[in-house]
């Protein structure tokens, strides 16, 4: 009789807890206190455990720290009830709020969308989709002062430039350019390109921004890169051609 | 006179909210809207002593808290950006507070907001007309902006210009605080603030709370106004002569003595900015 292979178990996803000593206060009020720390743990494909601290709203936040399964079990105590009763509802509520905010923004209800995005960001201030959404809301309304605040946040947001958010960071860059925030737009695309080098649309949009800044040579160089990535990219080809015509006009006696 | 130009006052005048609802909403705003210094201490990136040092410096210069904290090496740009975002996201606007309280529906709020924006356009036109009527409109504009910033930075009070200072309003403001600012590009500008009884008292309390006149006893409100004026003049350029004692009464109407005036509002009080004619 042949033995059946063991069934692959689902990757671990739960909450663990530990006690940690933290320093609070300054000067004469400085003291050490014991705190219960909750971490959200997700097993990675390579078997390592990505641990992220839970914020006050029971939402995972900050950079993940990788530990082995053995270290996790040695240092932390499982708290599955916290995951089921606090984390899951918080995450679902958060996603619902951002979905609603996206819907409101797309239907032109900018002010209500702003409230909803802010509500989501009060729960998780590092929420990528909500940050982009809030920034786009401001840019669509031409509120560049507030958009700068969001731009600075996004430029330091872990995971904002991953392929998952490709559509959003492209859209955000386009809106920065349309609002005349050319320095920010170039910075935004440059950061996105460092992390996603093979996106021809990013190259194209960066070229348009450079063109608006009057940097024609740089725009041409970036357009050529976009065409190397996708030779049948009609917009990039037409743009490069128009830059050529522009050059011919410039050099005409 | 058409209200104070603030949204809460506008809602009351429209009968859209009750005074009690407005009080609750303002209290909710006060709980949520935190100052940058508090956020820095809470995040553990600055000590309370460093915050005090920056606040002291801010009273003498026209710069944001974050700029000064970075210049002193207390704060990194990265932390400031994160905290500015946190402050912004958690900032509750009056409309949002009223919606959360259930005092207004979203639809009604949007209608009122449109009406308020129309009123604001009229106010801006009226302010422009009042400033254009002065002999030096650009200098007057810079002065009015400097006052707005000075009141906000030093006393935490929001100030809005409303329009020309009419005789009836001027008559209700017996306290006159003269000052002179020397502004780069504009030169010397003599002006005075005219106030009723409430604003000096309010400023006295505010500036004592802020620590600018921590040892002052009650009854020294004019000192608070002069401290604030010194700060404003200093931020605009070289301050001279703002320490003169206040005159108990002023001319019944600024125009009567060749002065032009601007009516300003801050929550709870109206006051006047009187631009004095150029002297030889």
Automatic annotation (TrEMBL), chain A:
Cross-referenced PANTHER family: PTHR44998, UDP-N-ACETYLGLUCOSAMINE--PEPTIDE N-ACETYLGLUCOSAMINYLTRANSFERASE 110 KDA SUBUNIT (PTHR44998:SF1)
Biological process per Gene Ontology, one example term: protein O-linked glycosylation
InterPro entries the UniProt entry points to: TPR-like_helical_dom_sf, TPR_rpt
Pfam families in alphabetical order: TPR_16 (PF13432), TPR_19 (PF14559)
Annotated protein name in UniProt: Tetratricopeptide repeat protein
Molecular functions per Gene Ontology: glycosyltransferase activity
Automatic annotation (TrEMBL), chain B:
UniProt xrefs under InterPro entries: T2SS_E_N_sf
Annotated spans, Disordered: 237-258
Protein name: Type II secretion system protein GspE N-terminal domain-containing protein
Organism: Fundidesulfovibrio putealis
Upper classification of the organism: Bacteria, Pseudomonadati, Thermodesulfobacteriota, Desulfovibrionia, Desulfovibrionales
């Amino acid at each position: 009789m042949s033995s059946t292979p063991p069934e692959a178990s689902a990757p671990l996803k739960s909450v663990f807890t530990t006690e940690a000593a933290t320093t609070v206060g300054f000067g004469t009020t400085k003291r050490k206190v014991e705190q219960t720390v909750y971490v959200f743990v997700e097993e990675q494909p390579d078997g390592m455990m990505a641990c992220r601290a839970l914020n006050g709203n029971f939402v995972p936040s900050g950079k993940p720290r990788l530990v082995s399964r053995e270290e996790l079990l040695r240092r932390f105590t499982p708290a599955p009830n916290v995951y089921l009763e606090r984390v899951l509802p918080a995450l679902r509520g958060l996603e619902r709020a951002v979905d609603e905010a996206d819907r409101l923004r797309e239907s032109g209800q900018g002010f209500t969308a702003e409230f909803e995005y802010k509500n989501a960001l009060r729960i998780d201030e590092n929420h990528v989709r909500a940050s982009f959404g809030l920034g786009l809301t401001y840019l669509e309304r031409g509120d560049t002062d507030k958009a700068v605040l969001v731009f600075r946040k996004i430029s330091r947001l872990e995971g904002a430039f991953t392929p998952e958010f490709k559509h959003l960071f492209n859209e955000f860059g386009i809106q920065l350019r349309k609002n005349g925030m050319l320095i920010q737009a170039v910075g935004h695309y440059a950061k996105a390109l460092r992390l996603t080098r093979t996106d021809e649309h990013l190259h194209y949009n960066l070229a348009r921004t450079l063109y608006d800044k009057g940097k024609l040579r740089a725009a041409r160089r970036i357009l050529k890169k976009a065409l190397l990535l996708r030779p049948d990219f009609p917009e990039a080809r037409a743009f490069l051609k128009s830059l050529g015509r522009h050059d011919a006009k410039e050099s005409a006696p | 006179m058409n209200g104070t130009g603030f949204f809460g006052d506008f809602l009351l005048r429209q009968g859209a909210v009750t005074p009690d609802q407005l009080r609750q909403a303002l209290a909710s705003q006060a709980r949520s809207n935190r100052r940058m210094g508090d956020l820095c201490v809470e995040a553990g990136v600055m000590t309370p002593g460093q915050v005090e040092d920056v606040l002291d410096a801010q009273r003498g210069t026209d710069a944001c808290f974050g700029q000064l904290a970075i210049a002193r090496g207390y704060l990194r740009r990265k932390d400031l950006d994160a905290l500015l975002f946190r402050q912004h996201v958690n900032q509750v606007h009056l409309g949002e507070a009223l919606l959360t309280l259930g005092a207004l529906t979203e639809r009604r709020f949007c209608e009122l907001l449109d009406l308020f924006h129309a009123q604001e356009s009229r106010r801006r036109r009226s302010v422009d007309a009042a400033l254009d009527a002065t002999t030096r409109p650009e200098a007057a504009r810079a002065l009015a902006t400097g006052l707005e910033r000075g009141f906000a930075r030093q006393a935490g009070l929001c100030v809005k210009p409303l329009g020309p200072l009419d005789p009836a309003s001027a008559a209700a403001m017996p306290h006159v605080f003269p000052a002179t600012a020397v502004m780069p590009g504009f030169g010397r500008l003599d002006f005075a603030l005219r106030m009723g009884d409430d604003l000096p008292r309010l400023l006295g309390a505010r500036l004592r709370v802020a620590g600018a006149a921590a040892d002052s006893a009650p009854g020294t409100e004019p000192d608070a106004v002069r401290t604030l004026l010194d700060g404003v003049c200093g931020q605009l350029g070289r301050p001279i002569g703002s320490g003169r004692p206040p005159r108990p009464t002023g001319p019944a109407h600024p125009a009567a003595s060749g002065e032009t005036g601007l009516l300003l509002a801050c929550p709870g009080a109206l006051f006047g900015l009187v631009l004095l004619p150029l002297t030889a």
